[in-house]
Design goal:
35% strand, glycosidase, EC 3.2.1.45, hydrolase, Glyco_hydro_b, Glyco_hydro_30
Length: 728
């Protein structure tokens, strides 16, 4: 057992309180609690019954809010203003375009999106070729070190600037940051703006980016960034942050550039110097790449770009860390935030699941910015390609590569638009949060109820609560000894706002020691947390993140463990009085047993596997739509996962929870095999409409009695596995 004492007190924090006995109504009436919810377009930003702090009652789930544990400041939710998206918006009539932008960004009548990504020169997502930088010297001029030919005329002509101004009209608090995919061609070693790839020595499948930033152009590239900021400022557009470079070193043939760790260090310092010389306060975000590429000790392939902070000057120049979610474990955001004390920004994602926004905020992300979210009814014209072909036919790429069903679809025939239902749930965050808000810790997901909580300096709280259940759920929100109960509609995201009252005491609560716990897999064990407080304050117990099968009673401190995974786990708990907190870590050792019928077996709870790299980015994936938040991905023919089951002899129904975003079913993709390797059954994985669009498929299998292995064998790949479950 390890114990740490937390005494950090958030300035001016408050909350609602925990009623005596956990469910009795309190006599003293507190501040008013106002709420709205969204459950698709039919129930968009609808008001909930007004209640008040102290109006408590029975609840299936308790959310503990801890203002003594302040985390990151909110920066925004929004999307990219890539040229493809902008081009589609400008195919609408002026009236429809205004209506679309207002629905997206207006905090009063729309979703209130408030954070937007600009591109410095062209990215891959453009409708109109050719790709461009802002400094294209005329024929016969090899380079332009004085940037005499610098121009953002393409941004003006393609309505990117106009779109920013329209966003500013409907949301004056909107903010903008910008990323370059590459330096101009003449600043690179291969004199090519688009990417150029080559095979790694000795490999037939692994590539590297040929085009590198010239060492003698680091300073001029930094001046190029400053000139971009000044050019946009002339249009009344404050670009408040730059990223160092979009996905540095990525091995693609659309615009990209390699930049070594040493060059990143020099460029970061140079950018900050040139920005200050220009009289600007623009921030600098470093990395701007996947979780995997920042730090992953299990990989020999990862770039481990955290090494740029080995240089103190680079660390001082960096204002934040930017991440993309396509590879790796999102918990690296929290690790980076705590290690380096820098804000974390999610600058590019294609995940429209509002639960991902909630989860990433809980992992200390300050923002959530989506990539390329406006295409037409056919999926748009864009120039992204996975091909590693330096002579790719870009016109053919634009003709054939389509990204349908983005957040916004523009019908170019009718000149109208439609939006996906996720927009309204996203608005439950963006409409009610602003730069004045700081996240505070709160208890983790339980009983299908998730949450994230923010406060401002005036002790006004905003709690966004998700209900993944198919029925309405009663929820108690407790803060500093006071609470209120609400009912969250089924399948909805609800936002509650109230003024809290945080005590300021001289003594923190203290945990009593907890001995290590021995448990058995798929069996129930309980242990008791106990804490004292010299001020006599009412205490609440919580945990920010508990594995599947572990629950905690916020009032009594009773922990119930029904582990689904064997081995050792360190479970972290916290107790708070609202003004201060204490932490305790309990070691739980779980002895392995086979899963009986009726128990859900998480895909990641395998006892053996073949075909994946342990700890690899393309194996166990974080996926908020999955049971337990994780799935096994990147399946391929010949891969297999082995599990243990303990059943009586008989024929059982086997449920497999799968997702397939390939666009086509995978016939006989999975075989189920017994201890001898014999095939018991084969099942087809249907097209589920997305890699997070889970569906259940079932088959019947005969099993002998006893504790035995059961193998899920990939006859083909192309699906994600969430869990499996036997039933009689």
């Amino acid at each position: 057992m390890r114990r740490t004492l937390g005494l950090t007190v958030a300035v001016g924090v408050v909350a609602a309180g925990l009623a005596a006995g956990g469910g009795q109504a309190m006599a003293e009436r507190g501040s008013v609690v106002r709420g709205t919810y969204s459950a698709g377009a039919a129930h968009a930003w609808q008001p909930l019954p007004t209640t008040y702090v102290g109006n408590d009652g029975p609840a299936g789930t308790t959310i503990v809010v801890d203002p003594s544990a302040a985390r990151q400041r909110y920066t925004g939710v929004g999307f990219s203003l890539d040229e493809t998206s902008v081009s589609n918006l400008w195919k609408l009539t002026p009236e429809q375009r205004d209506r679309a932008v207002r629905l997206l960004v207006d905090p009063k009548t729309g979703a209130g999106f408030d954070r937007f990504r600009l591109t410095i020169g062209s990215p891959d997502l453009i409708e109109h070729l050719p790709f461009w930088s802002y400094d294209e010297p005329p024929a016969g001029i090899a380079e332009d070190r004085d940037l005499k030919y610098f121009s953002i005329k393409r941004d003006v002509d393609l309505h990117i600037v106009d779109t920013v101004k329209l966003i500013q009209k409907y949301n004056p608090r909107a903010t903008f940051f910008a990323s370059a995919w590459s330096a101009p061609a003449w600043m690179k070693t291969n004199n090519r703006f688009t990417g150029e790839v080559a095979l790694q020595p000795g490999s037939t499948t692994s590539y590297y980016q040929v085009g590198k930033l010239r060492d003698d152009c680091i300073d001029v590239f930094a001046k190029y960034y400053a000139k971009y900021l000044q050019a946009y400022a002339k249009y009344g557009i404050d670009v408040d942050a730059l990223t160092l470079l979009n996905e540095p070193g990525i091995d693609v043939v659309y615009p990209a550039m390699d930049i070594s760790v040493a060059q990143q260090q020099k460029l970061a310092v140079a950018i900050k110097r040139e920005v200050r010389r220009a009289g600007l306060r623009t921030q600098l975000y470093v990395h701007d790449f996947n979780f995997w590429d920042w730090r992953d000790p299990n990989s020999t392939a990862t770039k481990n770009y955290h090494r740029i902070f080995d240089d103190p000057k680079t660390r001082a120049a960096a204002d934040a860390l930017a991440f993309h979610p396509y590879w790796g474990d999102p918990t690296v955001m929290r690790d980076a935030y705590e290690e380096f004390g820098k804000p974390v920004e999610m600058t590019e994602t294609s995940d429209l699941n509002p639960e991902t926004i909630l989860d990433y905020f809980r992992l200390d992300a300050s923002s959530y910015v989506m990539w390329a979210q406006t295409t037409d009814q056919d999926g748009g014209t864009l120039h992204w390609t996975p091909a590693r072909d330096n002579n790719v036919d870009w016109a053919e790429v634009g003709r054939t590569t389509k990204w349908p069903n983005r957040l916004v679809t523009v019908n170019t025939s009718t000149k109208t638009f439609s939006v996906r239902d996720e927009l309204y749930a996203m608005g439950q965050f963006a409409k009610y949060l602003g730069p004045e808000h700081t996240r505070v810790e709160s208890s983790g997901t339980a009983n299908g109820i998730s949450n994230v909580v923010f406060k401002d300096a005036g002790d006004n709280f905003v709690a966004i609560v998700g209900n993944a259940n198919a029925t309405p759920s009663t929820v108690r929100i407790t803060l500093a000894g006071r609470s209120f109960a609400v009912t969250v509609p089924a399948g909805a995201y609800a936002t509650y706002r109230w003024h809290g009252q945080v005590p300021h005491r001289s003594h923190a609560p203290r945990f009593q020691d907890v001995q290590p716990v021995i448990a058995d897999q798929y069996r129930t064990t309980q242990f008791q947390l106990r804490a004292t407080d010299r001020d006599g304050d009412r205490l609440a117990y919580y945990a920010t993140d508990l594995p599947a099968g572990v629950t905690l009673d916020a009032v009594t401190g009773l922990v119930t463990v029904h582990p689904t995974v064997s081995g050792e786990q360190n479970l972290k708990f916290r107790v708070t009085d609202g003004a201060a907190h204490d932490d305790v870590t309990v070691l739980v050792t779980t002895r392995p047993h086979g899963a009986p019928a009726g128990e859900r077996i998480e895909a990641e709870s395998y006892v053996a596997q073949h075909g994946w790299t342990e700890g690899g980015a393309n194996f166990i994936e974080s996926n908020p739509a999955a049971s337990g938040g994780k799935n096994v991905g990147w399946t391929a023919a010949g891969n297999w996962l082995q599990y243990r089951v303990d059943v009586a002899q008989g024929t059982y129904n086997l449920e497999l929870r799968v997702a397939n975003g390939s666009g086509a079913p995978a016939p006989d993709a999975i075989s189920i095999r017994d201890a001898s390797g014999a095939v018991l059954s084969k099942v087809t994985v249907p097209d589920t409409g997305g890699w997070a669009g889970y569906q259940s498929i079932s088959t019947r299998i005969p099993l002998p009695a006893g504790d035995q292995p059961l193998t899920v064998y990939c006859e083909t790949g192309g699906f994600n596995l969430d869990y499996l479950q036997l039933s009689s």
